[in-house]
Write a structure and sequence with these properties.
Its cofactor is Mg(2+). By secondary structure, the protein is an alpha+beta fold. 18% of the residues lie in helices and 36% in strands.
């Protein structure tokens, strides 16, 4: 497999409040899909574990320290600019309040109302709703 065709590993974090709300961020100007909403995260560096990348990205982007996170699912998506392998983690345990360290907008969402959503994010929302509301009788 050629180097160009290997998917890029990306660590993605879903911060989940006790009420089920999740944090979404808006991609800043200058990045592909600027203005689209997604779960925060970023590229895994060589010789870095996915969880270590997740923790680093959350400190760099949001000033949040993830205490613990559970691996949730993996999704591959081919965008025009990149083939990515997204590794999703759910964290209910973090320190600090999210801040916009890269000039990006972010929003806590119950039922997700922000648009447009990054294409790879859309199918996950239905699965996430099942997980968030499994025990709440909804």
């Amino acid at each position: 497999m050629s180097e160009a065709k290997r998917p890029i590993d990306v660590a993605v974090g879903i911060l989940m409040r006790p009420n089920g709300d999740v944090l979404l961020g808006q991609r800043p100007e200058g990045k592909p899909y600027a203005g689209y909403w997604e779960f925060p995260g970023g590229k895994v560096e060589p010789d870095e574990s996915i969880l270590a990348a997740l923790k680093r990205e959350f400190v760099e982007e949001l000033g949040v320290e993830i205490e613990s996170a559970e691996e949730w699912c993996g999704v591959e998506h081919v965008y025009p600019h990149a083939h990515v392998r997204l590794h999703f983690f759910i964290s209910r345990d973090w320190r600090g309040e999210p801040q916009s360290l890269e000039g990006q907008a972010f929003a806590w969402q119950g039922s997700v109302g922000v648009t447009p959503l990054l294409p790879a994010t859309i199918p996950l929302l239905e699965w996430l709703d099942q997980l968030r509301y499994a025990g709440s009788g909804r």
